[in-house]
Inverse folding.
């Protein structure tokens, strides 16, 4: 388990101070896939570098498996870092080394002197990330997705318990992004490795993560499960991310109110079980109001599905709201 307790990091520049991380507290359970999302400059990359102590916090404490990282000696910290893998946006491969040699480098740096053991481990990782047959290729001969697969294999070389992914899919096209996320999901399930995803792409979080922390100006402004964040975002920044993820759903609440000025607008949220039942039909039958469906969609996350409908209700909207709630749907008056 990773515990981040009231951690802050300040960069002191020539004429000013930049608060990169501001009093952040998070708990990340073993085996979780945890997304940290924010726009550029939010502090998310600094936060992830505090976890492996590539950056040292100015205040606060970070615990990994109940070990306070601030209490570790240099040698103990070096040993701990071998159990925290990291993959990067731009791959960070050595262009003069082959696929196998790039992966093997991580074992060499960790002090593994058994050449046969290193080669065996490299082949195992090559097979795991789907690069069988490309062992002797150089980075210049690989696609972006293949380069990131090498980066993932290298990060897994020393059997880490934690994998930090800093904008790992930002440089990839949508199809390649999907394949890399599928690979990370497979690795999480197969190895029970804790994955922390740093990203500015809500669709990445939606695809792979169980929990999310939203950062803005160095602070964590909202946390929750993916379903909680998507169905009921609270902060304006979070709402903006959720809206961007629904590329097919670009409605603006104020514009909708202008267009559908008669009656009230209701936002109805269904979970996976309720979405399979004819709830809307039942509500229409049991109410005297006129109900117009303005918008409806289904969202899928790693562990559930949920639906959202925007309805125009002309008549007793409170009665309609009560009926939806009777059938366990969540309702908001817009």
């Amino acid at each position: 388990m990773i515990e981040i307790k009231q951690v802050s990091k300040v960069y002191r520049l020539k004429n000013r101070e930049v608060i990169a991380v501001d009093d952040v507290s998070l708990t990340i359970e073993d085996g979780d896939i945890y997304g940290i999302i924010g726009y550029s400059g939010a502090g998310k990359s600094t936060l992830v570098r505090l976890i492996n102590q590539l950056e040292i916090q100015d205040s606060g404490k970070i615990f990994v498996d109940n070990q306070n990282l601030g209490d570790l000696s240099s040698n103990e910290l070096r040993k701990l870092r071998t159990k925290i893998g990291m993959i990067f946006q731009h791959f960070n491969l050595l262009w003069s080394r082959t696929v196998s040699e790039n992966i093997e480098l991580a074992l060499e740096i960790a002090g593994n002197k058994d050449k046969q053991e290193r080669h065996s481990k490299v082949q195992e990782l090559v097979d795991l990330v789907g690069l069988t047959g490309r062992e002797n290729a150089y980075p210049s001969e690989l696609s972006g997705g293949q380069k990131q697969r090498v980066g993932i294999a290298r990060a897994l070389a020393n059997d880490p318990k934690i994998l930090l992914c800093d904008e790992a899919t930002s440089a990839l096209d949508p199809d390649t992004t999907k394949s890399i996320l599928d690979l990370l999901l497979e690795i999480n399930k197969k190895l029970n490795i804790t994955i922390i995803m740093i990203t500015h792409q809500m669709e990445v979080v939606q695809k792979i993560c169980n929990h999310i922390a939203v950062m803005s100006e160095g602070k964590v402004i909202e946390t929750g499960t993916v379903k909680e964040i998507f169905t009921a975002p609270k902060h304006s920044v979070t709402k903006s991310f959720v809206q961007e993820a629904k590329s097919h759903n670009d409605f603006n609440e104020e514009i909708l109110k202008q267009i559908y000025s008669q009656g009230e607008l209701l936002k109805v949220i269904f979970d996976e079980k309720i979405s399979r039942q004819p709830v809307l039909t039942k509500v229409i039958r049991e109410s005297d109001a006129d109900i117009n469906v303005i918008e409806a969609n289904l969202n899928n996350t790693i562990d559930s599905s949920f639906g959202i409908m925007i309805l125009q209700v002309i008549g007793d909207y409170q009665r309609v709201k009560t009926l939806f709630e009777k059938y366990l749907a969540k309702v908001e008056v817009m």
Summary: The CA atoms of residues 98 and 138 lie 4 Å apart.
